[in-house]
Amino acid sequence: MDENKKAVPAGxxxxxxxxxxxxxxxxxxxxxxxxxxxVYLAQIADNPFFQHxxxxxxxxxxxxxxxxxxxxxxxxxxxxxxLYPYFLGLLYALFGRDLLLVRLLQMALGALNAWLxxxxxxxxxxxxxxxxxxxxxxxxxxxxxxxxxxxxxxLIVLLNLLLALSxxxxxxxxxxxxxxxxxxxxxxxxxxxxxxxxxxxxIPIYAAWQWRRAPARPRAARALLLLAAFAAGILxxxxxxxxxxxxxxxxxxxxxTNAGINFYLSSSPDxxxxxxxxxxxEWDELLNEPIRLGVHQAGAQSxxxxxxxxxxxxxxxxxxxxxxxxxxxxxxxxxxxxxxQDVYAFRQYSPLLALLVWKRGLAFPxxxxxxxxxxxxxxxxxxxxxxxxxxxxxxxxxxxxxxxxFVTARYRLNVLPFLxxxxxxxxxxxxxxxxxxxxxxxxxxxxxxxxxxLVCNWRVGAMKRDFSVDAYYNLAxxxxxxxxxxxxxxxxxxxxxxxxxxxEVNGNLGVIYEQEKRxxxxxxxxxxxxxxxxxxxxxxxxxxxxxARLGExxxxxxxxxxVLAVETENEKALWGRQFVRGLARQRxxxxxxxxxxxxxxxxxxxxxxxxxxNDLGAxxxxxxxxxxxxxxxxxxxxxxxxxxSAHNNLGIARMQLGDLEGAEREFLSALAIDAxxxxxxxxxxxxxxxxxxxxxxxxx
Length: 700
Hints:
mainly alpha, 4 domains, two-stranded antiparallel ribbon, 1% strand, elongated, disordered N terminus
């Protein structure tokens, strides 16, 4: 035990003095944690992402808006665990979509987590370690950062701390309600992040090991009942989500369908390249792979990627072993590996965050916390401190899951409280040895700590000031939706400076350049997309429309043909191809016949003039372009002017095209308007004589 801990015998209440000390510690912890959070929140309120959640945060925000409105968050089985979007949706339903208030409430939960950690530390190590751990956790920079984002870590940490406290209660005083509560909290935590599910197997095993020598250990029948209550708690919490997934997707999906694609991405030899794939061109191309093979249900698609990953591992186990070794190094590194947002880039908006997160040879804080935590775990194991194996099990299981999936700063926060707890124990124990001048006893821990500090901070790299391309792009797309094109363009240009060939960035820049009439710059953007994705439909459509606007009709037609080669029924491409063919024939007619050219030039100044349109239709008929005469003559008739002449010209055009019935109908319409129209009379007589001769018996 800590030298600062005053043990309380089982069944005996703490003294008034101990109680007052505990309350003082709790107030100190809450005051420090809340003060840090209020300062941080005030400092980041003006950052460009504050009112514009991006990437995963944007997805959660959109789902929460649907939930608050009483709609399904998505019309399919959940892709990601749904608890956090429902938590967010509940806040939206109660208070409206107030992102400042959401952040305030999340930071209040962060302070609550510091208090829960104090309780856990007091139970396991004593008052001194508990206070040191809670204060360190309350000032842990990356945790502060993620509490200020619309992301799940604060909720996951809360549930994991409650789960750990509940498990301790169930281990020390086994009962069916405590076992059920422990299972229910594990189920809730898995609905926030499924990686805790392996604890459903590990906790019972740990309990059996812990009870093996306990004088009042449960008998076999009682242990089975406890296990059943634990399992019932898990299943009862998860069951509504499973049922909802069945209802909307007609397939068995216990929680979410992202496991398969995530495991595939995280087990590939090109892990870092795969990890960089974000929603957009590459992501859609990858995600649609099973659909192209006829696999349409979300759960089946997840199974497809899982099988593909396992086959990939089986084909090259050596490469996978090397990848796991790399991941282990990344997991132990003090570097805060980004996912969605880079915490280092956010330091520019918060002096407090800059103080609490930095890299200068030493990667603070994780590069210090992890070595101290490993030291603390070793010291706790050597001293056989009771029940300290439970948080160690939490850490170990989570580390193994991270190695199987993604090793990022955001995901290792899930067990951060337990690491901080062991780190506080290690630091205080080492400090106690040094204060007591027990140099010989302190040599080994000091040497181990030095080695761990070196390993965990080896080549951690420099701090980035710029955000990722995805961050800039997502921010820009939201600004475009709000109509703030100038700010959106500025962020897109920042993204393009980092990745000049990024297809999503170039697509949006191209649209902005078109609006600015910078057509050549727009073409360059679309061509960059086609350089990376030659069959991209949207880029070809943009290029076709732009070429048509610039008069490059042949190139426009080629781009429309490229679209139809990929999507044979694309309506826009079908219409566009017909349109540019018409423009090409119009250009040809104008080049060959001065009459057509003259009328078209005059129409440029008066595009809706019925007289000119009627003359154009007549000119097309005269020059041998009857199909092109139909549209301008229809416009004349719709305008209600020159009706007799327009119907007559339209009749001639239809007769030239072989539509004799249509031609007769038009001539009759002309005569109904003006019975004295000699041209219509003559044309109708010619048509009727032709049709009579056509149907006369042919001589044998």
